């Protein structure tokens, strides 16, 4: 009703001093409640479009001065080409949006990577911690931009014991996930035109953040010992930032060798460069203890360490963290306050209580054992049912990666699979442009962490059928 009357004023169908019907009559005429009409009239009155005259009724106000401007707005058609945005906005607009599941239409996504085993999540223990955090009146007050103290303390202790990360509580910042952590770090450390070193295959969300900044991406090849790095190469000497996943390269799962770790640290010290260590799922290493973090080897304060709870807890928790060198804390603290002012205190407090109670460590131990078993099941099943797929060895994580023995289009296979209820991903979709322009790796990324044995059988059978159909089509 509000929009209808306002449009009639703009178009000239309702003119100054035209009388409007009473709210009672209009509500009966159009078949809506009188309260709705009253609300519309009150909005129009507060904005100066109508006026009430005692004993006479409600009339259109004199809005002649507004009509020329409003008329221009109404006839202007905005498009992507004439939309006025910043240079950064234009770069973001040019980036191809990543594929996301449509959460408004829930459906089974078999073998989806990074999906935890929610059927075995300790809901009661988590709910008890959430309830306790809601009863804590201190969480209803404004919190430090760096995050709730309890959670930061628990993260500090956990990382020291499990990853060898050395830090003070004041150097831990809570974020909405590792992606926000990386975005903040890049915004503060990278200029437009700067060269940033990346693994040749990895998480494409980083590429979007770099593109929005106008930074230049320089890719480094990967082998079984992780990223290939020569600190004396010109491309390394020209860069001042390196982003990598040393514990388990994403998505291949290779661990960076100690020799290369030391070479990377030496490069950072010589060039005063920054290293951003994305430790996305090192909690799930199956063969003994995982190798210590790169941050734990850093004696010069050049490593920024990022982690997330989205994989170890559940995707919707949207909590992560970043461990900063002491010299960067004041800058990041100030920027975080400007950007979002802090995250939900209750959610942070609940996570802190969950860790403090020991429930988080118990959950990780159970999931580590479960995921190891599920990986074995899936790998054996794929070897038996789809022999044309070759497993790329990995000793942990939440997904397995398989390369093609034959020349097949992994994008086409995954597109068809996704339409039929499989959440699998194409290996080539993680590939970045390479220095030598060699062909992209092709293959399939299958998640096993959140899949039961029955779901694995169903998913692998469907994948085999789709691959057979694609093979026949390409003959």
TrEMBL record:
In the C-terminal section; belongs to the class-I pyridoxal-phosphate-dependent aminotransferase family. The keyword Transmembrane does not apply. One of its GO terms (molecular function) is transaminase activity. It holds the Pfam family GntR. This is GntR family transcriptional regulator/MocR family aminotransferase. Gene3D superfamilies: Type I PLP-dependent aspartate aminotransferase-like (Major domain) (3.40.640.10), Winged helix-like DNA-binding domain superfamily/Winged helix DNA-binding domain (1.10.10.10). Residues 1-63 form the HTH gntR-type domain. InterPro entries: Aminotransferase_I/II_large, HTH_trans_reg/aminotransferase, PyrdxlP-dep_Trfase, PyrdxlP-dep_Trfase_major, Tscrpt_reg_HTH_GntR, WH-like_DNA-bd_sf, WH_DNA-bd_sf. SMART domains: HTH_GNTR (SM00345). It comes from Neptunomonas japonica JAMM 1380. Keywords: Aminotransferase, DNA-binding, Pyridoxal phosphate, Transcription, Transcription regulation, Transferase.
């Amino acid at each position: 009703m509000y929009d209808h009357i306002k449009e009639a004023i703009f178009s000239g169908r309702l003119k100054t001093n035209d009388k409007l019907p009473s709210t009672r009559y209009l509500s009966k005429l159009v078949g809506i409640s009188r309260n709705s009409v009253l609300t519309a009239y009150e909005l129009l009155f507060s904005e100066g479009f109508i006026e009430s005259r005692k004993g006479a009724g409600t009339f259109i106000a004199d809005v002649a001065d507004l009509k020329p401007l409003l008329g221009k707005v109404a006839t202007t058609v905005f498009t992507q080409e004439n939309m006025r945005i910043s240079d950064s906005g234009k770069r973001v607009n040019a980036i191809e949006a990543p594929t996301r599941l449509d959460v408004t239409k829930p459906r089974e996504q078999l073998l989806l990577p990074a999906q935890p085993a929610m059927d075995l999540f300790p809901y009661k223990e988590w709910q008890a911690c959430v309830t306790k955090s809601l009863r804590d009146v201190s969480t209803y007050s404004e919190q430090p931009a760096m995050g709730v103290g309890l959670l930061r303390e628990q993260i500090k202790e956990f990382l020291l014991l499990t990853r060898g990360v050395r830090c003070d509580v004041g150097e831990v910042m809570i974020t909405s996930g590792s992606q926000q952590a990386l975005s903040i770090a890049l915004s503060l450390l990278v200029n437009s035109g700067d060269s940033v070193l990346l693994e040749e295959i990895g998480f494409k969300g980083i590429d979007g953040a770099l593109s929005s900044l106008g930074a230049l991406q320089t890719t480094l090849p990967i082998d079984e010992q992780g990223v290939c790095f020569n600190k004396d190469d010109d491309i390394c000497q020209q860069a001042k930032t390196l982003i990598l996943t040393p514990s388990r390269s994403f998505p291949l799962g290779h661990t960076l060798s100690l020799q290369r770790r030391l070479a990377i640290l030496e490069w950072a010290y010589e060039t005063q460069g920054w290293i951003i260590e994305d430790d996305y799922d090192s909690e799930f290493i199956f063969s003994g203890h995982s190798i210590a973090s790169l941050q734990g080897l850093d004696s010069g304060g050049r490593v920024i360490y990022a982690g997330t709870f989205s994989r170890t807890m559940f995707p919707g928790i949207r909590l992560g963290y970043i461990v900063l060198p002491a010299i960067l804390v004041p800058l990041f603290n100030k920027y975080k306050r400007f950007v979002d002012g802090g995250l939900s205190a209750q959610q942070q407090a609940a996570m802190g209580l969950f860790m403090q109670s020991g429930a988080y460590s118990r959950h990780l131990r159970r999931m580590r054992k479960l995921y190891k078993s599920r990986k074995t099941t899936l790998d054996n099943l794929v070897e038996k049912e789809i022999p044309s797929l070759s497993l790329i060895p990995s000793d942990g994580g939440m997904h397995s990666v398989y390369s093609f023995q034959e020349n097949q289009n992994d994008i086409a296979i995954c597109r068809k699979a996704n339409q039929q209820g499989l959440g699998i991903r194409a290996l080539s979709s993680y590939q970045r442009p390479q220095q030598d322009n060699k062909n992209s790796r092709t293959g399939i990324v299958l998640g096993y962490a959140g899949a039961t044995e029955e779901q694995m059988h169903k998913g692998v059978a469907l994948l085999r059928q789709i691959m057979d159909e694609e093979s026949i089509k390409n003959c």
